[in-house]
User: Fold these one by one.
Assistant:
Number 1:
Amino acid sequence: MSKVLMEGSQALAEAAIQAGCRFYSGYPITPSTEILEYMSVRQPQVGGVCMNAESEIEAIGMVWGAAGCGVRSMTASTGQGISLMQESFAELANAQIPVVTVNMCRGQGDYFQATRGGGHGDYRFIVLAPSSAQEAADLTQLAFDLADKWRNPVMIMGDFLLSHTSEIVELRDAAAVPPPKSWAITGAKGRPAITLSPLGGSAKLVSDHGATLGQVTAKHAGIKVEEARVDAGFLDDAALVVVAFGFPGRFVKYAVRLARARGLRVGYVRPISLWPFPSRIIADVAARARAIAVFELNAGQMVEDVQLAVLGRAPVHSIGGISHDHSGFGVGPLLDVEHILRRIVDIYPSGDQGTEGSRDQVTETEPS
Amino acid sequence: MEMEKVFSKPDLLLRSEHSLCPGCGEPVALRILLETIQNLGLRERTICVAGIGCYTAFPMIMDVDVMQALHGRAPSVATGVKRVRPDALVFTMQGDGDMISEGLQEVIHSAARGEKFTAVVFNNAVFGETGGHMTAATVVGQHTKTTVGGRDRERHGHPIKIAELVAQLDGTAYVARAAVHTASAIKLAEQYLRDAFRAQLGGKGFSLVELLTMCPTDWFVPPEQGPGFLEEKLKPIYPLGVIKGG
């Protein structure tokens, strides 16, 4: 397929179409609305369905029904709307229904919501965090494949800039036909009737809720081993490694290059999968670096996962923060390469070759 | 002497025993549902979307495909199902607590959209599974554990008549209310379900059948007094008959 100029939201939506998504249901909310707009035009063109749901609760309910019938299905919202979907999220995981959900966040304050979940019980979503329109397209296709592979919901976590920035995108050709889904509800034609339920069981007359929950959570270990993904650079000799995800991760990469130009030995790790968190990679990095920094546009959420991965091997500094401007969409003044560079310089390990920098609003977090 | 079998469980019922209380109306309603599907020859096209209540025990003994939904959410789930399986016979199975208390918005919007599935609500005017608490369909004067002196207009408001409410909406093709407390009521219930399913398969729009069911345990009466309680307390508030599309 040829290269096209698209907003991140459109790239994500078109990639979903290419991946075989034939059911979309959504409720408008900035900055995810463009996905709904795109799907309302595009789904009918490919014989799919786009629903103007009357609430986020109904949006995820409709997606549940369509995905439970074996059709690749998706919904998108932002943190507030995602909060409303949490009950269904928890039970979709228990029912092992492979839905794809998108959170175009305001800032990055929904990291805990995405990786811990606001729902009940012992469930997990696979969470992917693209940093560009191209990656949004690529990870959307991956999201549908992973959802089917693990029979587990997948969330794509983007943000305002990802959603609204137009970039050159090359879409892969239509993905392979989704795998057959013997668990899907189709009507009991030529086979015994089945039940698809978060309470367990598929065959009639047998139901063991506890066994189902055990089966669902047993998958988590395999997902952790197989699905951790990062983008990383300049690690070989790095004294300081900066960890950042999503669109802000691109700002960090640029700031790291500027730091290198000043002769500072700085590297970066950009987690692409937020769950499973790439703990092993960060642990390896921490064993060699003298310090770790975390830049995220929230009050300090991913830093806890970094600390758990580092386990005291190196000091962990939180150099992000809540970054708001009048728009309310969580972009704000902290998302600035010069500012990020100042913070990098600020915490660069003393004794290494560093330069003076300002200490504005830097908060340090030492591992306990 | 030759014996002729004149009565047995429906073919689509996988086990004749149920785990609900003596005198419960929901197993009767289930039987009517399964016999209607069987008589129409629609087993292989049927998809039930079940809500959460005492009847959540039924999906495992129904010989049709069932998708289990969350409390209140069956209409949105059924919307997703029907939109991707337009040839299926899709019906929801909810209670009054599920549909009218928790999920009222869902059934209203599904009806207004004219979704081509049939919403079946078992209305016993009480939260049965929690042990007898007020729902949005509890009738004025009815004793529950949360309306100890009886539902009071001033303190607890009025019950919602879901069938009449939904019938006003342009997307609805067929709406009826029946009961399962007498043989003649059961015959009507069968007819209404058949007509609702036919309206659905004819692509006419949304359909809803409300079935008044007995819950002697949470009406705090002996099982044999359930049908009389339904007749005296519920039926005057919830009159039986076809409300739209007959």
Number 2:
Amino acid sequence: MNIDALILGCMHNDPAAQRELYNRFSPKMLPVCYRFAQSREDAEDMLQEGFIKVFMQIHTFENKGAFEGWVRRIIVHTCINLLKKNKRFNESLNLEHANALHVKEETLPSIMQAKQVIECIRLLPIGYRTVLNLYAIEGYSHKEIAEMLDIEESTSRSQYTRSKNMLEAILIKKRIIEKPDMDAGFIASLGTTTN
Amino acid sequence: MYNDELEDFLRHQADDHRMYPSDKLWRNIQLTLHGETRWPALTYISIFIIASLVVSTLLMKPEERMKKNVAVYTTAATAANTETALANRTDAAENSPVQHAYTDKITQSTIEAVNDKVNKEQHSVTNTLSIVHYDSKTNAALIQAKAAINPASIAATVVKAPQLSTQAIAVTVKNSNEELATVPNTGKPASMYFSTFGLMNVSGLKAGGLVQHSLANIDNEEIWRNFPLLNASDIILKKLSKFNFQFYITPSISYRQLTDAKGKAARSYTAIPLSANYKIDINNIVKHTPSIGAEVGFALGYQLNNRFTVKSGLQFNVRQYNIAAYPAAWPPASDDMQPGNETIDALATSANYTQANSSPIVLRNRYYEIAAPIGMDYKVFAGTNGTVTINVAATVQPTYTFDKEPFVITTDYKNYADGSLLMRNWNINSSVEAYISYKLGAFRWQIGPQFRYQHLPTYGGGYPIREHLLDYGVKLGFTKSLN
């Protein structure tokens, strides 16, 4: 069944079409939620909320862009809305300096690289992580991020810069990427513990 | 790896990442979008049982079959086609329930009752077919046909024979009248009379005349061996014995099962931290204990065949369970009692119990119900002579709750409030049971375990916390055939 037929079926509230659509997109959307969430359970709840919104608002889809992009935007907005209810998240957005992270080297040696990278992103403080996800992976501008998170655009930029540096350091420590000229002092500030 | 390179790298890695959600996630989504899946099987089972009852009543009613046979065979008789009539008579005898009759004694009163019945039949048949004139052949054919329909009718025909008297029958009539009169004095079973006079001697008829049996023939044992005894009273008994009456009482223990339909979707809005609010099983939060209840009822059964019986009746239920709660000085916020987005002020303000303090008190939720079970009974095993049987049975029970003052838990799981406004009047229950029965005299006594489940939530109106009642009981009862 092609995507247009699926969308049409979902617009008619057809459970079979809804199930097919869910099966097709949920494996891609769950990682999106997982990058924002604190745990897999939280991510599944975000996904659940997101798909409910997708099915309830599918009649507003105007076929002007990729349907997957439309679904993804709804999922991301759902994640952000749920995160914004979290007090710790709101505090984290105004964090000037993240506390030192205790990152173990090679703690994830056996899993695939994609998952390793995602796990590294998840090591970031929640505010940093959110901005990084939105900007670097989801492709939102700082202006859009500022509107979504109710923060200043400059805050988004600074949060992103810090999160990127922190992630880069983590990736180096995990030996996922190499960057010989990385500031040794910054890496040390991550509070390395060695296995 | 700088700036855009890192972002490209991250995006690429993120795009490659796949995760598969758990199955329950789709169920939750479906539940939110389409509500709870209805169980169409309930409807289908109910329709099937009702349809079975109707069809079996229409198709298997002996009276109707007999009437149909009368029409067929008397038509043949009036056509004066003796051979055809005889052939029909033979077929009829094979197909008739009379074929299954067995030797039994009948009393004079039974004979009179049968004569009465057959007189009416004869009158009806005569009027319908406008038989004005009889010759010996048609009389013989008519008698043969009627014998096939109902062996007792031949006796009546003979008794009333003067109205139909002809040469061929006159002697028979005379003899038979004598025989009838002498039956009580012969010391023979009255049914022998019908048997000897059953005109089952087809060859004799084909030869052109009726075989006349005199009193002397009654002593001829060969006759009893050659012709099956056709006992009219059996026909009547068999027809009525398909119905039975059952009375039962079932002491039971009532449990309840709670589910929160809003599930995680509802609670995820309050997730601080997100993970802390999940995996809450409401059944583990409330403190409820089962209590003793009972069912008392009666049922009318109709035996479809040797193993299956359909039954329906009326039943009174008492179901109850206990809840541990704690007196509270404050009512819960009206928000807590919202089914969906509707505020129910009456419930919110009437709440005066909570689970959050010390010194618990016991609240008792008790429901009084009337139910109309419709079900099927299957005989799994029957011992020698059918004295002991093992059966299984299942019923669907439309139920009306006529007295209810339940305490309902609020959606935040913290308080109890008066839930009578939320409670459904009508519900659907179903039960399954297995029992062993023992026939003692006219009654068949039974005992066995029974499980009953309430399919629709106790509270309607979209209230998200759903309560389903479960009863485990021991059913005691007796059944009596209706004569």
